[in-house]
From TrEMBL:
Keywords per UniProt: Membrane, Transmembrane, Transmembrane helix
Protein name: Dolichyl-diphosphooligosaccharide-protein glycosyltransferase subunit TMEM258
The species this protein was found in: Oedothorax gibbosus
Keyword Cell inner membrane: no
Listed GO CC annotations: oligosaccharyltransferase complex
Length: 87
């Protein structure tokens, strides 16, 4: 069984975890990703309102909504990280 001294020595020899994304860029990533996501969301809403049932394309709807969801999802993730809610 390892003693407390051996355990402390093992912790000192370990390297500290460094996040792959610098926390200083969280605000910038938040604004950029949410801006892109809002653009695609607005494009999707305009497409749905202005198209008729004859001119709608389900693949275009799915593609635009998927892109909007991905950008908004990552934007909200970095927003939470920016304000200190570490998920």
């Amino acid at each position: 069984m390892a003693s407390a001294a051996e355990f402390a020595m093992g912790l000192e020899s370990m390297s500290r975890y460094v996040s792959p994304v610098n926390p200083a860029v969280y605000p910038h990533l938040t604004l950029v990703l949410l801006g892109i996501g809002l653009f695609f969301m607005a494009w999707f809403f305009v497409y749905e309102v202005t198209s008729t049932k004859f001119t709608r394309d389900v693949f275009k709807e799915l593609l635009i909504s998927l892109v909007a969801a991905v950008f908004l999802g990552f934007g909200i993730l970095f927003l939470l990280l920016w304000v200190g809610i570490y998920v």
